[in-house]
Amino acid sequence: MTTVNVNNTLHTFQNSLSAKQLLEHLNISPNGIALALNNNVLPKSKWEEPLENNANILIIKATQGG
């Protein structure tokens, strides 16, 4: 079992999953977002690597403004 904290909300999964799979599960488009894993920016090249149990993920969505 894997527990992941996403933007201060706990999610539990039967199996380990990658950041990419997490986004799919949460119905979040990977376009226009950045991910931080345990307070470090996670490059898109690493989004397919398995997340560790108790990982802390912050999803940051780009917004328009001026």
TrEMBL record:
* Record Gene3D superfamilies: 3.10.20.30
Against InterPro entries, the record matches this protein to: Beta-grasp_dom_sf, Mopterin_synth/thiamin_S_b, Thi_S, ThiS/MoaD-like
This protein's source sits in the domain of life called: Bacteria
Q: What is this protein called?
A: Thiamine biosynthesis protein ThiS
Identify the species of origin: Galbibacter orientalis DSM 19592
